[in-house]
């Protein structure tokens, strides 16, 4: 190979690196952990995410009924049965308990997410990792740490709220979230409140890692299509972030569906006769309907996770910009 060919390759590599750096520079500025007014971030976050949770809760109720009920049924038929039996109130059973856990769980999630993303991203860049790779690695690490931190609160909340979701007026065992908490604690102890905790970590940690890294990469790809110069337009910014989140959420729903079904069964099943185990729960599901039984409720979960992801992320990014310290965005 001639020296001129080597020079041309080096110039080509330098041009590509410069183009990548320019592309990154033109993307919307990232609001990192150090730029946030923490008190405003958590107060506004609690209010915004509570509203989003209320809007999406009925789909979670339908999904939970589909996962727990032995005979397979369509999502529309299940929703119609809940409406006929309990009215609109049936779609919000357990919502109070879920909402009570939303504030501390979201606070833990957001704190772990932003702190990890900021520290890992900075460390990766200092080690010489390229900006896109550092961003993907930081997002993946942040997703794992956020999932683990949030499950400390979310698992007991899930156990209580899901028990309330599936009970009906005819089979009403709990009078509310506090009553369910006391009875589960009295029957199974703390272990009962954390039933499915390990499976939750196994489900949500890799799911969050894939979700946040995919979200970061999808945003970059969509900005290439749309044109980074349009990032100054707020509607374009929200559309790209929402579409990226919906793609990541739908994929995560499909990948984690079997684990979520098993986890939900474990958390909802009563321990009156024999304590349910992971093996017995999986055997029961396979006996009922083979591997297809593990995907019951996929439609509502796919829809709710895609919609939830798009709504949550656009709300989250909007929240970070609302919470940015004066002058931090330049």
TrEMBL record:
It is found in: Membrane. The keyword Nuclease does not apply. Signal peptide: none annotated. GO terms for cellular component: membrane. SUPFAM superfamilies: Mitochondrial carrier. Keywords: Membrane, Repeat, Transmembrane, Transport. It is a multi-pass membrane protein. The keyword Calcium does not apply. Belongs to the mitochondrial carrier (TC 2.A.29) family. PANTHER family: MITOCHONDRIAL SUBSTRATE CARRIER FAMILY PROTEIN, MITOCHONDRIAL SUBSTRATE CARRIER FAMILY PROTEIN J. This is Mitochondrial carrier protein. It comes from Digitaria exilis.
